Amino acid sequence: MWRVGHLAYGFAVRLRKRNSLCALAGISFRTSSTKTAPLRTRMEYQDAVCTLNTLQTNASALEQIRQGRSNPQLQLQAMIGFIERSGLTVDKLDNLNIIHVTGTKGKGSTCAFTERILRNYGFRTGFYSSPHLVQVRERIRINGHPVGKELFAKYFWQVYGRLFETKEMNSETMPAYFRFLTILAFHVFLQEKVDLAIIEVGIGGAYDCTNIIRHPWVCGISSLGIDHTQILGDTIEKIAWQKGGIFKPGVPAFTVKQPEDAMRVLKDRAKEIGCSLQVCPSLVDYDSDCVPVTLGLAGQHQLPNASLALQLSHAWLKRKCLLGEKSVNVVQLSMKLFICVCCDLGLADTEWPGRNQTLKHGDITYYLDGAHTMRSMLACVQWFKETAAQHELNASGPVTRVLLFNSSGERDSAAMLKLLVPCHFDYAVFCPNITEAIASCNADQQNFNVSVDYMLTRCLDNESSWRLHNSSPQDQVSPQRLIGDAPCLVPEKNAETLVFPCILSSLQWIAQGKDSVLVNPDKTQLPVKPSVMAKAALLREATEIHVLITGSLHLVGGALKHLDPAMSI
């Protein structure tokens, strides 16, 4: 009886919410008895995502943010309450045999390497990460694959229903977006009986909602830098203190080489909490059956991430063996470090979209990297300059370079843009993290936390910063203006920079009809004034076009939605 009532309740909730909420995304629903199973699954998934999106801006979510800033300890207490209301206990999370990872730069890549290595040993893996690129279900992976739409919707309504049913008895509170997804991930991993769960911290560590984990098997900290200063603090020491908050008594912890001040704080935190802390060796210090070691992720900055992943995998496997599981060949922690074939293949086969990723569509090559801090942008610039230069050696004619950039939040986009100047772009294009200017039915890409006006203003500021970095004082130009009703903002002078209202219109203008994926009839073609099209002469004449898309993972995700349609299926 409870199950029938619960299903009816869930269906009623969806019916009440979907017209009012999903209309914002341009969705139109019709009830039909002839609906095919794939269509029904797709609609149920979109319905779930629409409801999930309401947790971005509901009153309780805003109150949670306010309380969190004034008393961060309340965040963990509240999270425990939400976990219990959803039908779990914190103790049950111990069954997930968790690897907990934080850091400023490289924590996602470290998790991806670790997951692939342990999957190679035959273990059923769960992997929780953020943010997603195209679809929200990417955040919750089983054996390397995003949880299916049907499974996501099934568990979503189970968890949402339990929390909604107990809302009145708990001050009308519902968990905010990220908290809910964290709870959902724990439910999915427990119900799907994974052998281990790799959990990436959202922001910080000490007060992040993932830190309700009490008994992880091993903890890791990737490279530290300055980011999220309003939440974590404005010095490397304050940030290191927050990151070290994931350490647990008696649980081994590993980190990569850090700035001296950060390392001192991490050592103090480990001593205070009562755990060991080891610094991972350089990857060149390992011996391997495959020489040199090949990484599936490009860029020199991935080397320490790979070493950290090897140590995390070794620590997890070591504990599994000590508990009586079958013996396995692992990384040997000795004077001579050795990487076995299983680990070698894991490192080589790792995929992590949107990070140093290259896509070639005919004469256009897209270089995608979600770098959004100074250190990660430096790494991105190095990767792009080296990779693009190699590709240009094989070009049969002129190559045009284009930057597509956006940056959000509190980050210093002007400083990041300055780092990009040496890449010698022919065009710098700016747009907000909006996939399409015309409303679409893709609720996964919606962000209700920032107004469109603010996003466009930020783009204009970024454009001005770029012009400043690329102009001598006598070349300074007047402010931007919107030309007529064109869907494109352009400067009055200096045709090498443009600001578009969405990612799709930016990509279409850059491609100039040369990318068949973007001229698909399903893609809306926005009109552009002749004066704007006239600025594209270099693009039309180029033998090849090289496009670097960077500054934000959300920008990269929106671009991949259009450039890699398979990610939207």
TrEMBL record:
<dbReference type="GO" id="GO:0006730">
    <property type="term" value="P:one-carbon metabolic process"/>
</dbReference>
<keyword id="KW-0554">One-carbon metabolism</keyword>
<comment type="function">
    <text>Catalyzes conversion of folates to polyglutamate derivatives allowing concentration of folate compounds in the cell and the intracellular retention of these cofactors, which are important substrates for most of the folate-dependent enzymes that are involved in one-carbon transfer reactions involved in purine, pyrimidine and amino acid synthesis.</text>
</comment>
<dbReference type="InterPro" id="IPR018109">
    <property type="entry name" value="Folylpolyglutamate_synth_CS"/>
</dbReference>
<keyword id="KW-0067">ATP-binding</keyword>
<comment type="similarity">
    <text>Belongs to the folylpolyglutamate synthase family.</text>
</comment>
<keyword id="KW-0963">Cytoplasm</keyword>
<dbReference type="InterPro" id="IPR036565">
    <property type="entry name" value="Mur-like_cat_sf"/>
</dbReference>
<protein>
    <recommendedName>
        <fullName>Folylpolyglutamate synthase</fullName>
        <ecNumber>6.3.2.17</ecNumber>
    </recommendedName>
</protein>
<keyword id="KW-0472">Membrane</keyword>
<keyword id="KW-0479">Metal-binding</keyword>
<keyword id="KW-0496">Mitochondrion</keyword>
<dbReference type="InterPro" id="IPR023600">
    <property type="entry name" value="Folylpolyglutamate_synth_euk"/>
</dbReference>
<feature type="binding site">
    <location>
        <position position="130"/>
    </location>
    <ligand>
        <name>Mg(2+) 1</name>
    </ligand>
</feature>
<dbReference type="GO" id="GO:0005829">
    <property type="term" value="C:cytosol"/>
</dbReference>
<keyword id="KW-0460">Magnesium</keyword>
<dbReference type="GO" id="GO:0005524">
    <property type="term" value="F:ATP binding"/>
</dbReference>
<feature type="binding site">
    <location>
        <position position="369"/>
    </location>
    <ligand>
        <name>ATP</name>
    </ligand>
</feature>
<dbReference type="InterPro" id="IPR036615">
    <property type="entry name" value="Mur_ligase_C_dom_sf"/>
</dbReference>
<keyword id="KW-0547">Nucleotide-binding</keyword>
<feature type="binding site">
    <location>
        <position position="200"/>
    </location>
    <ligand>
        <name>Mg(2+) 1</name>
    </ligand>
</feature>
<dbReference type="GO" id="GO:0005759">
    <property type="term" value="C:mitochondrial matrix"/>
</dbReference>
<dbReference type="InterPro" id="IPR001645">
    <property type="entry name" value="Folylpolyglutamate_synth"/>
</dbReference>
<dbReference type="GO" id="GO:0004326">
    <property type="term" value="F:tetrahydrofolylpolyglutamate synthase activity"/>
</dbReference>
<keyword id="KW-0999">Mitochondrion inner membrane</keyword>
<keyword id="KW-0436">Ligase</keyword>
<dbReference type="GO" id="GO:0046872">
    <property type="term" value="F:metal ion binding"/>
</dbReference>
<feature type="binding site">
    <location>
        <position position="228"/>
    </location>
    <ligand>
        <name>Mg(2+) 2</name>
    </ligand>
</feature>
<feature type="binding site">
    <location>
        <position position="355"/>
    </location>
    <ligand>
        <name>ATP</name>
    </ligand>
</feature>
<comment type="pathway">
    <text>Cofactor biosynthesis; tetrahydrofolylpolyglutamate biosynthesis.</text>
</comment>
<dbReference type="GO" id="GO:0005743">
    <property type="term" value="C:mitochondrial inner membrane"/>
</dbReference>
